[in-house]
Amino acid sequence: MKARNLGPRNLQAANTLALPCVAEHFYRLEQAEAAADTLRAIRERHPQHPLHILAGGSNVILPEHLPLVVQPAMTGIHYLGEQQGCHHYRVLAGTVWDALVRHTVDQGHGGLENLALIPGHCGAAPIQNIGAYGVELAEFVHAIEGVELTELQPFRHRREDARFAYRDSRYKQEAGRWLITALELALPARWRPRIDYPGLQQALAGQQPEPQRILQAVVAERKRKLPEPAQSPNAGSFFKNPVVDEYSMRLLLAEHPGLPHWPTESGHKLSAAWLIEQAGWKGRSLGPAGVSDQHALVLVNAGGARAEDILRLARAIQQDVETRFGVPLEIEPRCLA
Ligand SMILES: Cc1cc2nc3c(=O)[nH]c(=O)nc-3n(C[C@H](O)[C@H](O)[C@H](O)COP(=O)(O)OP(=O)(O)OC[C@H]3O[C@@H](n4cnc5c(N)ncnc54)[C@H](O)[C@@H]3O)c2cc1C
Fold it and tell me: Ligand 1 pocket, 54 CB below 6 A?
């Protein structure tokens, strides 16, 4: 039998917010090729339970109890060669994302360096189209493979099928329908540095911007700016940066000339961290949940918090920011609670 039930399993150490959670039934998927059959066997055994997928646990808000959890645990990075001006890699879902970034950069294949040190597994990276320092995963995706969970059939999507957007994809929109087992990435053979992001430019001042140097600068910058989940349990940015239209942008700037904003294809992106800090939430707590004093966009479990404590704080911030600025904030991590 390919599916071995490892539950019940305590998931408190398996989510970076350190929320208490027990999975009644817990399965690890070890083989990409056998994933559809294994999932069919799991479904037959637990027809009454909704199935939740957990990878590195760095972007989830977990309830205290989950009936059935599956972890894609297959690992491996395979270089497929150069095709049409790109280095192609196939990487299995359970591989640690940062290990892939370092491996490709070590091979002399740049592209992913701005995305160094983002926690989590490769299979989770397309869910919210991970991004950092002016770069998003979407631009490197050639194909995504996995299992469609309604029919339990394997699928292979091209980038266009994935409907990537800012911290979004069809896999996030249609959560529960897709389990990703592997990604095929295409890294441009003619690499060019992407160092427009102000903090990165300063860190690299006077240096030749090679992929390895950029990676090191990104790692240093992230370590300086973001609280480490091991010391201060968190899920990274808790809210997406809101995007507003031209008219709203003008009204906001008339009242708040210091509001940081960037033009994007869909409108003006605002700094959620600035809005939260201006509303006075940076460093503040509500019971055992708090806002990091290091970064206003990061909510932390100050000790003993449960999902409802984190969500209560999040709602208080959302209400306050909306009242003050008229801008709704959207929660970024996936809430399973
Ligand atoms: C300190 C810190 C910094 C962060 N910085 C960034 C950042 O700079 N940029 C950024 O974009 N994100 C960032 N994040 C968020 C997080 O690292 C990413 O979203 C990451 O891709 C989540 O990976 P994971 O393996 O932990 O996924 P999990 O948290 O386990 O899962 C996230 C979601 O994806 C689903 N999922 C996971 N794997 C699969 C799969 N194989 N198939 C189908 N569904 C799946 C889960 O069901 C869940 O809904 C940060 C988080 C932390 C804690």
Answer: yes
Neighbours of 54 (CB within 10 A): 22
Task: Name the closest-CA residue to atom 51, ligand 1.
Answer: 236
Could you tell me the distance, in angstroms and rounded to a whole number, from the CA of residue 21 to the centre of ligand 1?
17
C-alpha torsion sign, points 110, 167, 271, 264 = positive
Strand order across the 261-264 sheet: 243-244, 267-270, 261-264
Q: Which position among 169, 232, 237, 292 bears the catalytic label? A: 237
Do the beta carbons of residue 85 and residue 190 sit within 8 Å?
yes
pLDDT digits (tens, 9 = 90+) for 237-265: 999 999 999 999 999 999 999 999 999 88
pLDDT score of 337: 79
Q: What is the pLDDT of residues 63-73, one digit of tens each?
A: 999 999 999 99
In order of their start, the domains of the chain are: 9-72 (3.30.43.10), 77-223 (3.30.465.10), 228-335 (3.90.78.10)
Pair of tokens at residue 222? 């992230």
